[in-house]
Amino acid sequence: MDNPFPEKHVVGMEQAARPGVGIFWMVVTGLCFVGVTALVKALGDRIPAVEAAFLRFLLGLVFLAPMWRDLHQATFTRKLWGLFLLRGGMHTVGVALWFYAMTRIPLAEVTAMNYLNPVYVTVLAVFFLGERLAVRRVGAIAAALVGAMLILRPGFRELDPGHYAMLVTALVFGGSYLLAKILSSEVRPSVVVIMMSLTVTVGLAPMALSVWVWPTWTELALLFGVACFATGGHYAMTLAFVAAPVTLTQPVTFLQLVWSVLIGAMFFAEPVDLWVVAGGSVIMAAVIFITWREAVLKRRITPVVSETKL
Length: 310
Hints:
Helices cover 73% and strands 0% of the residues. It has helices at 7-14, 19-43, 49-60, 68-73, 78-102, 107-114, 116-128, 135-152, 161-183, 189-210, 217-243, 246-249, 255-267, 274-296. It is globular and about 45 Å long.
């Protein structure tokens, strides 16, 4: 999901940086997004993944009410419709796979593999935005792939379909983020947010109906909680961007892995896997390096880890 405030506005506000405030809000962001994952995990697999994803987006539309006026005032060309539909289709696939993965693999592995999203964005930007990769960034991408191998350890353990789902999810969310970046130069960011939510809701609807299981009130409450945490996470992330530079707040996203490990162990009896922690650390270090290099070069392509999430 996108930053609801224009990037220009955020960059301008960063000049009066308040590091402590920025770090605080990024910690809150991480807790919110780990809360999203934990609630989906608690939901279990009685409700099919695509139905759970559909209900999350349907319930989440209530939070977009303040933005509807911007959508009404927007002008859509054929090109914009095509980009919105392409992004909606990609994000629909990513969301469905993400919900599926969360019912299959531990919280820490979902979180660690999410760190690949910004790395995919860096690679895809070469093909879609004409970016050039210097040797240092290529080295960082290679390090991130090593981190992914530490998490997955193919050949040393049996991989679950959820692992493959997360690999595709990270790639699709990366592509969706780049499309959002292109669209944000054509229409207001609030319109990009609304259109993503609408197209994903519509895209998931037929898949959800084909496997429909009537949810209980408890399950609906959990899914509404997912929507609340997701919205709160993106709002907190925006406050972090306003308060401090990305180069300062990006490393704080590593705490999401710490929260995931703790919550997985305490509430879901998931053993602490040091290989996953090590792999996530390597990927996060690569993302921080890429972000720092972009700050030095005074251009921002790579998103904060949380920016590509639901």
